[in-house]
Design brief:
There is one protein chain. By secondary structure, the chain is of the alpha/beta class. Strands 13-12-11-14-10-15-16-9-17 form a nine-stranded mixed β-sheet, sandwiched between helices. The protein has a six-stranded parallel β-sheet with strand order 18-23-22-19-21-20, with helices on both faces. It has a five-stranded mixed barrel with strand order 2-3-4-6-5. The protein is globular, with a radius of gyration of 27 Å. The structure holds adenosine-5'-diphosphate and magnesium ion (MG).
């Protein structure tokens, strides 16, 4: 069977049903998906040097003959060591693998192989390459080059994924190049298929850089074109002018359980004024975690409900939707009833109802404020007289998803909210004529979260402290990088950590578990239990990352903290410090690479999201794009805030193209790609 972009990944040698399942978890089903799955970093194993010159920590490829190979149990009998000597004309070096005893059978003495890895001389002073990748001498997929490193899932190994991608790239030429020829020429970009091939297996740093620029350009250009289209469609539509009842709004603000910050007041007023216009609002409310965006949203919604129109509030996860539903209910205090719709829940106020009952109440106007997840975007859900749509954590939704709620007449006003600190100028470059409100001030009385680095030997003391705090009525989040134990070295899972805590902590400390794979009613129940204080310690994955607001939780422990990016750490830390009680964030790394060290120390130095975003950028370096999924930069897989010049350029190119060809009819490939991108679902 011949291979095509549209073939299933199982058409690739070495990818069976099990591997296909793991790939599916990564969003990869077809060969096309596979070659569009980009590395998040690279190892530079292009250096080939005489063995005699190798020093500790050098990253190298050594090609030579296996002189001897044998396996033995380690001293503590916990691992099997397979040790080999590889030699060539420049000398010999020891190579060690852990728990791969079969290698003894695969790699016999006399085999010619290439191994790539780091030289370590800490083992009794003997230079050793530890856990290297290997392949037959002469092959250049895993060694002897700049080697791509991909995110993995399940039991899929790097070796297998890399080999599969290398194989799949044989059909890269089927990729259409949608960039107009004159732009390709102007920018001297490689063709799209070449760029894709080189972003996986570059022959040089320069080739990689050129490929990355091309792909970033594509991403940003498509984005500009999508936004332009949505904007154009919206701009010609009238919106409902929501009457401003200043007296009502004042008394509503007074009824809130706290005094608004000046920034909240200003933002709320800007929004209310926008909603009073007949032109659809297109505003982004940007505020660091904990700055109080919900209250601002509540004021806008109250204004809309007061003048007898409807509002919808879109949240990225079920946990958040039900939390925000409850928060709005508290703010409105019986004045307006708030509905909740998610995949598994329907509520009116505090009461569970059937989905049908809820939709009936929405249809006849009894419920005019509807909070929900993407369940709100399904066909057949109609909110009559919808004047305002709020999209919380907007970057978690695709452009098309946001558009679905907005595609109606009159056009609803749109308020997007984000905790990502995007500088004003950058936001304008990315989103064009979007209006921006920034909450640059924290509610009064907030104490900065004390952030501490906790190393192995201090962990016991940390848990003891936490037990004391729990006895005093405090609660703690314990975030782990994984759900289940994995054989990846050192990675701590929710399951392992929860079991350890249950075993070692006093019985009085009630431990709960939360992660994305739990059925959603169990998730909701667990968050509710934590909120009601019937759980003291919540061991979870990063599902608590966005938006979860439980002010009594004042302790955040991040296990394996070195595995998280700065913006993620900042988001996680933002789950505590949400009241006037002093909070602590413990960063407990399992390993300690130089850049992890810089990231984690930066966390201890500042709690300011803008500052951390800047530090993040510096640490990444402008050229280093990968892992930007972690940089929390909305909408983009590749581009980072450092790519402003490229953003400006794509904006200009987009307007030039659209100026000459508004419907893109003269650019059918581009048009097709924009429309496919608009349809892409971005939610996990
Ligand atoms: P975010 O901006 O991260 O979405 P939230 O809206 O969840 O933040 O608000 C964080 C917490 O601060 C909530 O418990 C909220 O009730 C509270 N809060 C919001 N505004 C104020 C304020 N002006 N004064 C005191 N507490 C506030
Ligand atoms: Mg929020």
């Amino acid at each position: 069977m011949s291979l095509h972009l549209s073939s299933s990944v199982t058409a690739i040698p070495g990818i069976g049903t099990l591997a296909a399942k793991d790939l599916k978890n990564l969003g990869i089903v077809s060969v096309r998906d596979l070659i569009l799955y980009l590395p998040y970093r690279y190892e530079d194993y292009s250096v080939v040097r005489p063995i005699s010159s190798l020093r500790h920590d050098d990253a190298v490829t050594v090609t030579g003959t296996v002189r001897q190979i044998e396996s033995r149990a380690s001293k503590n009998r916990k691992v099997t060591l397979t040790e080999a000597i590889v030699e060539n004309e420049s000398g010999e070096i020891k190579v060690t693998w852990f728990n791969q005893p079969y290698l003894e059978k695969t790699l016999r003495a006399g085999f010619r192989i290439s191994v790539a890895g780091r030289v370590d001389s800490r083992f009794g002073g003997v230079r050793t390459i530890v856990s290297p990748v290997w392949e037959p001498a002469g092959d250049r997929v895993h060694t002897g080059r700049i080697v791509p490193v991909y995110g993995l899932s399940g039991t899929l190994t790097m070796r297998r994924l890399r080999a599969a991608i290398e194989h799949a790239l044989s059909v890269a030429a089927e990729l259409v190049d949608f960039l107009p020829a004159e732009i390709l020429a102007e920018e001297s970009f490689p063709a799209r298929d070449v760029a894709i091939r080189n972003v996986h297996f570059p022959e040089s740093r320069a080739e990689l850089d050129a490929a990355v620029s091309r792909l970033k350009f594509d991403e940003l250009l498509i984005h500009q074109l999508m936004f332009a289209q949505v904007r154009k469609e919206r701009a010609v539509r009238p919106a409902t002018a929501v009457e401003t009842d200043t007296g009502f709004l004042k008394s509503f603000v007074q009824s809130l359980p706290f005094e608004l910050t000046t920034a909240q007041r200003r933002a709320a007023w800007e929004i209310v004024q926008d909603c009073a216009k007949e032109r659809p609002m297109n505003r982004l409310l940007e505020g660091d975690v904990g700055s109080g965006k919900t209250a601002v949203a509540a004021i806008a919604i109250a204004g809309v409900l007061r003048s007898n129109h409807s509002a919808a509030y879109l949240a990225p996860t079920e946990i958040l939707a039900s939390q925000q539903h409850a928060a709005l209910g508290r703010f409105f205090d019986g004045q307006f009833s708030v509905g909740l719709l998610t995949a598994s829940q329907a509520k009116i106020g505090g009461d569970s109802v059937t989905r049908k009952e809820l939709l009936a109440a929405v249809a006849d106007g009894r419920v005019r404020c509807l909070v929900g997840t993407h369940a709100l975007l399904q066909q057949g859900i109609d909110v009559p007289d919808l004047a305002l749509v709020i999209v919380d954590e907007q970057h978690r939704f695709g452009v098309q998803q946001r558009k679905m709620l907005l595609d109606r007449l009159p056009a609803p006003h749109l308020l997007s909210m984000t905790a990502t600190p995007i500088p004003r100028s950058l936001a304008l470059t990315i989103y064009g004529d979007l209006d921006l409100s920034i909450l640059d001030e924290m509610p009064k009385g907030r104490l900065p979260v004390a952030t501490k680095l906790v190393f192995d030997k201090e962990r016991a003391a940390m848990w003891t402290r936490i037990v004391v705090d729990v006895a005093l009525g405090r609660q703690a989040f314990v975030v782990c990088p994984l759900i289940d134990p994995s054989d990846a070295l050192g990675a701590k899972s929710v399951t392992e950590v929860a079991a350890m805590l249950k075993r070692t902590l006093p019985r009085t400390v009630r431990v709960g578990i939360l992660h994305g794979k739990l059925p959603s009613d169990e998730k909701t129940a667990m968050i509710a239990a934590f909120r009601d204080r019937s759980v003291d310690l919540l061991v979870s994955t990063t599902v608590v990352e966005v938006g979860v607001d439980i002010p009594n939780a004042t302790i955040m422990v991040i296990v394996g903290a070195e595995r998280f990016g700065l913006s993620q750490l900042h988001q996680l830390r933002g789950r505590v410090g949400r009241s006037d009680i002093a909070s602590t964030c413990y960063l407990a790394p399992d390993g300690w690479s130089p850049d992890a060290k810089e990231r984690l120390t930066a966390m201890t130095r500042t709690t300011n999201g803008f500052e951390l975003a800047e530090i993040d950028l510096k640490l990444r370096g402008a050229g280093n794009v990968f892992g930007s999924a972690q940089s929390g930069f909305p909408d983009f897989k590749l581009a980072t805030p450092a790519d402003v010049p490229l953003m400006k350029k794509t904006r200009d190119v987009a307007s030039r193209i659209l100026g000459a060809d508004p419907e893109l009819d003269g650019h059918p490939l581009l048009k097709e790609f924009v429309s496919v991108s608009l349809d892409e679902v971005h939610l996990e």
